[in-house]
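User: I'm curious whether this sequence folds into something compact or stays loose and floppy. Could you predict its structure so I can see for myself?
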Amino acid sequence: MMISGGSATCGTGGSVTLQSGIGHAGSSGRVIVGSPDVGGDGASGAVTIATGDAVTADSGQVSISTGDSLDGAGGDIALRAGEGDLGAGGDILLGAGCSSAAASQGGAITLQGGTGASTNLNDGGDGGDGGDVIMQATANLNTLIDFRVNNQFKAEFGQAGRSKNRSGLSGGDLIIFVPCGTKVENIETGEVIGDLSNDGDQCLVAKAGYGGKGNTRFKTSRNRAPRKATSGTNGEQRKLHLELNLLADVGLLGYPNAGKSTFIRSVSSAKPKVADYPFTTLNPNLGMVRVDYDNSFVIADIPGIIEGASDGMGLGIEFLKHLSRTSILLHIVDLFEPAEVDEITLSIKALTSELRKFEESLYEKERWLIFNKIDLLEEPQLKIDEILSDLDWQGPVFSISAETSTGTEKLKNELMRRLNELNLSENN
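Assistant: Here's the prediction. I'll summarize afterward.
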């Protein structure tokens, strides 16, 4: 079968168009040009796409191309030779035309891969911005241990600009969740980037890079298709130091074996190790103290402080930072050991001095004296009165036995009452 356009004597001959139907809501139809399979011993028919020869003008052009896609991918073009079971596979020949003229050159063959849209030479849009890296505090975490393994993070890159002067999509922000009380510090500069105390607090730790400008930004009245585009900028890269300070309402101070761990076990759900030797507590402990159905507070226990702690002696000085956010400090005093009043007085003064050397603001916090182990003495109040007189102490004083829970209920109630007063004062 032959399909041909009409001939013309002096003008252009008629055109022949093979086109499938339009799909208004679906895909358009396919156009298939091919010869059928052969069931016998003969060869299948050839398919030829060719233009006619010309005498004095240029011969016609053959164009094979796929259409552009607005929101999808462009169509592929496949050139594939047939396989041969017994004979050789078919060849693919790409040949440019020769020229017999002395001053002319033969035709070139150009193979070109696809170009990113942000550098499209005709109508490329801007590249998208990258995503920011953000840290956010959450009450669902209480440790930074996960960062020992997973400690490198990247936000999404922005996408390249697209054709039809459409900008590329921006990369999504990366949110890294950390416990409440996390301080974020730039290792290289020492700058504190954020102090994330409350649930939902955020800080920007690495700013995204900006997308490059597409070639359409450089169009002029004389150059409508500029071959110019800019690259996007790199996002910030930072090395960070994360430090977690415990969030507690009440902090415990005292020498090793003063009974701090026994006290926190007695009044809260925390179960720190308790033993009769120094530095039983090697890590901070948090306990929730339930006073009644509607009232509770958090109490923090740290390793005991010893004289010379500010010069590196002992363990507790490393953890004093965890008490920086507390409202009240309880100074637990062992009333039983040592036995002499002057020794106990000197120990209280020495710890107070270490506190002041570490941080003035911590020294100035509201502090209560809690005399522990009264169950081991016949007349504990006489000893307490002597100590208070020597110290000229003006603050709150309580006498308890953490082991037997004597006096702890009264102390819990007074702490809750005072914390409510402080919260009310801050809110007003």
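Summary: The two ends are 95 Å apart (CA to CA). Residues 248 and 298 are 5 Å apart (CA to CA).
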